[in-house]
Amino acid sequence: MKTKKTQQRYTEWLCPEEMHEASLNWFSELKFMRDEQFFLNNLIKSYTLQLTDSSVFKKSKEVVGHLQKIEQELVPLFKKVQVHENQLEIMIDDVDQLKMEKAYLETHKELKFEMRNYSARYRKIKEALFKVVTTVMKKNKQKRLLT
Predict the structure, then answer these.
(1) Spatial contact of 16 and 89, defined as CB atoms under 8 Å apart
(2) 60 with 51: CB under 8 angstroms?
(3) How far is CA 98 from each of CA 32, 102, 126, rounded to the nearest angstrom?
(4) pLDDT tens per residue, range 84-139
(5) Which is nearest to 101 in space by CA: 24, 18, 14, 22?
(6) What's the pTM?
(7) Which of 10, 14, 7 is nearest to 112 (CA)?
(8) What whole-number distance in Å separates Cα of residue 22 and Cα of residue 24?
(9) Cα-based distances in Å from 1 to 4, 6
């Protein structure tokens, strides 16, 4: 007779206030990232000519492409968080709707994962952009010193 291994899954119990606070933090992070993306786009515009230099063109094109792609993901993610926040009422009304509450908790967990993933990818792209721009700035500084 074979025994069947079962995996126990512990789910974190979150009260509505904690989920509301998490949603507000996500809003804040996304707004900051939106503002930061505006800054990064201005930075790219400021160094467009230098970024098209043959030595960094391939890398800069790749990074700028990734930045544009992740910018397009921001608005839908922002809307998901907004819808999630608006549905918080399911958890605080005095009506027992176990299926809906369970679905809300599952959505919260998925959004938490999605936010963490988006944030990590964004930081990675931002770091790559700063490396490219730093390289360009150093080259400009060297050129000015030589002339």
Answers:
(1) no
(2) yes
(3) 35, 6, 41
(4) 998 888 777 767 778 888 888 899 999 999 999 999 999 999 999 999 999 998 88
(5) 14
(6) 0.82
(7) 14
(8) 5
(9) 10, 16
Alpha carbons 65 and 58: distance in angstroms, whole number = 11
* Tokens 């608005």, located at residue: 75
Portion of the chain with pLDDT greater than 90, in percent: 56
Tokens of 82: 């907004």
CA distances from 115 to 5, 48, 74, 88, 93 (A): 32, 30, 10, 18, 26
DSSP alpha helices (H): ranges in 47-56? Answer: 48-51
Report which of 29, 59, 72 is spatially closest to residue 130, judged by C-alpha positions.
59
Q: Which residues neighbour 22 within 8 Å (Cβ) at sequence distance 6 or greater? A: 14, 108, 112
CA-CA distances (angstroms) from residue 63 to 5, 47, 53, 59, 60? 45, 14, 14, 6, 5
Compute CA distances 110 → 11, 29, 89, 103, whole Å. 13, 17, 18, 10
Residue type, 63: V
Structure tokens at 16: 């509505």
